């Protein structure tokens, strides 16, 4: 056998063996090359293969889209394109994509009864020039690099996931449902003179044909963005355990950059996030909303305000957050909007400054504020002004309370989350801020390489 075919066969065998140890969530134990060959020899009554291969550059063997799924179960006889894989793979299949740069993937009308996962082959780099999805469901993308043009999750999609991937392009979502973005890195998107929405990492909006609902944004890292990290007017939006850093508009060319901006989004839960060195924080503008919960977040050095909300929200729970450095927590009054129907619950927060308009319906208690605000001081039972919280090691991103802090056991259990930002249980008397004091307790992710 000549050296080149022997090398290809050895590489294919090595990749097939590596799949057995890939072990990622949502994927069943992988097949070895031997079991893949056995699959191709089974009769037509054998179970459909669950591990398939795409290899446009024929790294492991010559690719061909015309072959059936049973043949594509062997890395030596792969398909060529991801679109063929989505159309032909059985339910709950994982399609391993071999290394290389792939063209933009367009899917329209791909309705499936179960997941198909397109994942980079173990220890291989796969770049894709974006996706464009319409009327498609149950497709998951994992460990891919998205570059080139903006991703579009267009109309009438559901159960679409992007996981553990690297994105240097925006992702635009129009009326769709049950979406998940988890474990990704969004960074270094285009800036001016590009279209400003192409600088938003996740642009998730409704449309005339329906709403975008049930979106989970969890465990991602958003870095060095020149426009918003998340912009949405959808419904049932969960933003949890993300890291936001250096979300900053270049010289305000695009007006401002927010960590999270909404325009009338409903049932928004913002929990357990860390944000540092950003232009701004959380802003709701232009439209009425309800169902807001903001708990266990740590916002550090927001240049303007870490929070800008007003009476366009019908209700709000702002509980056990730490807002330190930068501008004030701003809960303001919009004379064009009616008074909020339900009292804002504002409790157990630590803030450098907090400015709450007295015309709002609100219930304040147990907030620790360092500096006198511009207009209205913190009030309510248990609240204190001018008291330093005594953080453990803020220069290292550690904003836990240190031993002897006045914030220990100083909160109220009303509306307090059962666990703190790092997952430590809140037991007995509740502390103020995002962390519950415990010697040697977990810190949680606060910045790259710091836990």
Write out key terms for the chains shown.
4 helices; 451 residues; mainly beta; 13-stranded parallel sheet; single chain; disordered N terminus; elongated
Describe the model.
The termini are far apart. The chain is elongated. By secondary structure, the chain is mainly β. Helices cover 8% and strands 35% of the residues. The strands form four sheets. It has a 13-stranded parallel beta sheet. A 13-stranded parallel beta sheet has the order 3-6-9-12-15-18-21-24-27-30-33-36-37, with no helix packed on it. The longest helix has 17 residues, at 3-19. The protein has four helices and 39 strands. 48% of the residues are buried.
Offer a quick outline of the entry.
Helices cover 8% and strands 35% of the residues.
Fraction of residues in helices?
Answer: under 10%
Low-confidence stretches: 1-7, 20-44
Give the overall pLDDT as a whole number. 88
What general outline do the C-alpha atoms trace? elongated
H/I helix tally: 4
Widest beta sheet: strand line-up: 1-2-5-8-11-14-17-20-23-26-29-32-35
- In whole angstroms, the N-to-C terminal distance is 52 Å
Write down the Rg: 25 Å
Structural class: mainly beta
Strand count:
39
Largest sheet: 13 strands, parallel
Strand content: 25-35%
């Amino acid at each position: 056998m000549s050296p080149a075919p022997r090398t290809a066969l050895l590489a294919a065998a090595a990749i097939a063996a590596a799949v057995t140890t890939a072990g990622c969530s949502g994927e069943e134990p992988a097949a070895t090359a031997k079991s893949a060959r056995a699959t191709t020899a089974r009769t037509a009554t054998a179970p459909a293969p669950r591990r398939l291969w795409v290899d446009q550059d024929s790294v492991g063997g010559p690719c061909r889209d015309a072959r059936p799924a049973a043949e594509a179960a062997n890395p030596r006889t792969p398909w060529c394109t991801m679109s063929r894989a989505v159309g032909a793979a059985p339910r709950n299949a994982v399609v391993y994509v071999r290394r290389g740069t792939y063209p933009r993937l367009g899917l329209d009308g791909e309705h499936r009864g179960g997941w198909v996962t397109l994942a980079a082959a173990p220890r291989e780099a796969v770049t894709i020039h974006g996706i464009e999805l319409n009327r498609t469901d149950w497709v998951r993308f994992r460990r891919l690099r998205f570059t080139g043009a903006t991703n579009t999750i267009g109309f009438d999609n559901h159960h679409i996931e992007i996981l553990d991937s690297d994105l240097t392009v925006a992702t635009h979502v129009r009326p769709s449902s049950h979406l998940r973005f988890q474990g990704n890195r969004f960074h270094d998107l285009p800036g001016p003179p590009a279209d400003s929405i192409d600088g938003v990492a996740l642009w998730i909006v409704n449309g005339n044909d329906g709403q975008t609902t049930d979106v989970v944004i969890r465990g991602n890292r958003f870095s060095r963005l020149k426009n918003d990290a998340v912009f949405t007017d959808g419904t049932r939006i969960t933003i949890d355990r993300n890291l936001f850093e250096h979300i900053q508009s270049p010289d305000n060319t695009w007006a401002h950059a927010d960590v999270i901006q909404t325009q009338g989004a409903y049932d928004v839960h913002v929990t357990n996030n860390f944000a540092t060195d950003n232009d701004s924080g959380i802003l709701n503008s232009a439209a009425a909303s309800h169902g807001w919960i903001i708990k266990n977040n740590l916002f550090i050095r927001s240049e303007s305000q870490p929070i800008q909300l007003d009476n366009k929200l019908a209700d709000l729970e702002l509980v056990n957050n730490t807002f330190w450095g930068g501008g004030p927590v701003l809960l303001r009054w919009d004379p064009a909007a009616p008074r909020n129907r339900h009292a804002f619950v504002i409790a157990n927060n630590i803030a450098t400054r907090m400015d709450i308009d007295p015309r709002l319906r609100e219930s304040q208690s147990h907030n620790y504020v360092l500096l006198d605000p511009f207009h209205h001081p913190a009030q309510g039972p248990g609240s204190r002004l001018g008291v330093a919280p005594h953080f453990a090691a803020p220069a290292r991103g550690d904003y836990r309370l240190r031993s002897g802090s006045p914030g220990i056991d100083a909160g109220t259990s009303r509306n307090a989350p059962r666990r703190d930002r790092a997952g430590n249980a809140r037991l007995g008397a509740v502390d103020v801020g995002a962390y519950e004091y415990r010697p040697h307790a977990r810190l949680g992710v606060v910045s790259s390489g710091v836990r």
